[in-house]
Amino acid sequence: MPVRDSEAIILRSFPLGEGDRLVSFLSRANGRMRGVASGARKPKSRFGSTLEIFSYVRIWFYERETRDLVRINQCDLLESFFGAQRDYASELMLALASEVTEAVLGEREVAEPNFRLLLAIGRAIKAGADHRIVSGYFALWIVRLGGWLPRLGRCGQCGSAISGDGYFSDGGGIICRACSEPGRTYCSSGTLELASRMLVNKLDEFLKPDAANGLCTANAYELRNIMLNVIERHIEKKLRTRKLLDEVRGLSANA
Ligand SMILES: [Zn+2]
Questions:
Q1: Ligand 1: distance of its center to the CA of 155 in Å?
Q2: 154: CA distance to ligand 1 center in Å?
């Protein structure tokens, strides 16, 4: 089989056998894939640190006709995000992005927008952005790219325009105050406005100092939680790293 190559972001890697690694990665050209990097855990491995979580690499691999796993030949580092993991919250943010990407994308489903989204949030975290803003943006766009985002401006039940605060129903739709019932997730008007802005602007727009005010951060956090609920409903499981990230927030709030 011919060797193929692609830009890729490493999502996760696990030890395999004596000295190999099983690597999950998002290829820009081929979608989410898994492969084996032979000898990657041996000293002086040719893979070096290229298989660290979130590394942006050029990867060479070939397919094996009878196996799901590709064989990874070579990996060159294009950009490292090792520095982005300077604190535990940033590290967990990148781990959350990896976990969500693995969970929402089918294997070999080409997902170039997801690739660009991952790269953008990695760079934002590396530049020191607040993880609440980055994760709010990320979760909203994952829901949008997954085709699960309801119309934000109109009530999914009565069809009237939503002015002011709204509520999220279990089905993921947004509903007005009049249609809301107990148990629905509250969504403030500021959060709805932020979501609308995030759908038409690049992440960079929200990282400038004037945009990073308290209101924006609180709205981004509310948005993140609502969108992660939508994601968890669709993947039918709880995100492991979400819980860990919430615990970090709890610790810093008590400090
Ligand atoms: Zn309504």
A1: 5
A2: 8
Dump pLDDT digits (tens) for 212-226.
566 788 999 999 999
Token readout for 15 is: 């030890």
Which CATH number applies to 86-254? 1.20.1440.120
The CA distance from 151 to 160, in Å, is 12
Give me the pLDDT at residue 172, please: 65
Ligand 1 center from residue 140 Cα (angstroms): 22
Task: Please count the other Cβ atoms lying within 10 Å of the Cβ belonging to residue 123.
Answer: 18
How many angstroms is it from 162 CA to the middle of ligand 1? Answer: 8
CA of 254 to the centre of ligand 1 (A): 38
> Is the overall model pTM greater than 0.85, yes or no?
yes
CATH topology of domain 4-80: OB fold (Dihydrolipoamide Acetyltransferase, E2P) (2.40.50)
CATH 2.40.50.140 range(s) for the chain read: 4-80
